[in-house]
């Protein structure tokens, strides 16, 4: 481990429990690199996670951390931000944790524009609990609960966040590590609800069932299918069919909820 990031880990909790080739460690590395570049105070930074493979990330980080109940990471993070608005609060959540049981918390955190940096580890499946399909599993892909292919349409998580009111929305992959670090930095600087969706790979539950090859093959797939908005615009509809845009997708300004709440308290006090 690099000396400059070692300070951010609970070394006694390592090695991690993720499968060989899992992309979650890449996301965790990019997160601590972003925190280091931002020069955030560890004692004023909080990590909140729910349940699932992604949620185990908070246990490896040497900050004040909350490993909460399934789908409730954003609800707990909202409470932290209301009680201590001066804290830097990061939410680490998976696609199932965030968009299924946690879906209602997600849209309302975005609607309120609460100053939280939410990183969604999107591996398109419930990796820890048996490989079931999630609201982010692509149509026709296989899972233990869709052995003949998923019939449901997945959420477009970034469009959902924009429609709900998030003021910073971005997407990248675990292949594009520098971009991931940069997006976390930019998302944290936004004064409002920030979503960074990270397309990551689950070689065990998703990769095997969908014959995606090795973890390296899955990273190459991300490289070849995640493209910039400029490149995407130059493609015809047929070429766009299996591609997705990476980078900043939406950025705007709106009143931040906890700031407005504090103003109300001062007015009433």
UniProtKB/TrEMBL annotation:
<dbReference type="InterPro" id="IPR011766">
    <property type="entry name" value="TPP_enzyme_TPP-bd"/>
</dbReference>
<dbReference type="Pfam" id="PF02775">
    <property type="entry name" value="TPP_enzyme_C"/>
</dbReference>
<protein>
    <submittedName>
        <fullName>2-oxoglutarate ferredoxin oxidoreductase subunit beta</fullName>
    </submittedName>
</protein>
<keyword id="KW-0560">Oxidoreductase</keyword>
<dbReference type="GO" id="GO:0016625">
    <property type="term" value="F:oxidoreductase activity, acting on the aldehyde or oxo group of donors, iron-sulfur protein as acceptor"/>
</dbReference>
<dbReference type="InterPro" id="IPR051457">
    <property type="entry name" value="2-oxoacid:Fd_oxidoreductase"/>
</dbReference>
<feature type="domain" description="Thiamine pyrophosphate enzyme TPP-binding">
    <location>
        <begin position="53"/>
        <end position="198"/>
    </location>
</feature>
<dbReference type="GO" id="GO:0030976">
    <property type="term" value="F:thiamine pyrophosphate binding"/>
</dbReference>
<dbReference type="GO" id="GO:0045333">
    <property type="term" value="P:cellular respiration"/>
</dbReference>
<dbReference type="InterPro" id="IPR029061">
    <property type="entry name" value="THDP-binding"/>
</dbReference>
């Amino acid at each position: 481990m690099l000396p400059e990031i070692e300070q951010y880990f609970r070394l006694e909790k390592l090695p991690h429990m993720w499968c060989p080739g899992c992309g979650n460690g890449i996301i965790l590395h990019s997160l601590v690199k972003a925190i280091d570049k931002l020069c955030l105070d560890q004692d004023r930074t909080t990590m909140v996670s729910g349940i699932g493979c992604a949620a185990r990330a908070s246990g490896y980080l040497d900050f004040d951390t909350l490993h909460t109940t399934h789908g409730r990471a954003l609800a707990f993070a909202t409470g932290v931000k209301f009680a201590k608005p001066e804290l830097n609060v990061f939410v680490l959540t998976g696609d199932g944790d965030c968009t299924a049981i946690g879906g209602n918390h997600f849209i309302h955190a975005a609607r309120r524009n609460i100053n939280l940096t939410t990183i969604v580890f999107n591996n398109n499946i419930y990796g820890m609990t048996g490989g079931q399909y999630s609201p982010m599993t692509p149509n026709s892909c296989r899972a233990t609960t869709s052995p003949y292919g998923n019939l449901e349409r997945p959420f477009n998580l970034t469009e959902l966040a924009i429609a709900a009111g998030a003021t910073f929305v971005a997407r990248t992959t675990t292949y594009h590590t520098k971009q991931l670090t940069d997006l976390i930095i930019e998302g944290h600087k936004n004064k409002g609800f920030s979503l960074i969706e990270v397309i990551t790979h689950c070689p065990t539950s998703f990769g095997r069932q969908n014959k995606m090859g090795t973890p390296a093959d899955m990273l190459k797939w991300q490289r070849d299918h995640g493209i910039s908005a400029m490149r995407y615009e130059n493609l015809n509809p047929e070429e766009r069919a299996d591609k997705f845009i990476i980078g900043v997708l939406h950025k705007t300004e709106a009143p931040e909820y906890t700031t407005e709440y504090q103003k109300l308290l001062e007015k009433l006090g």
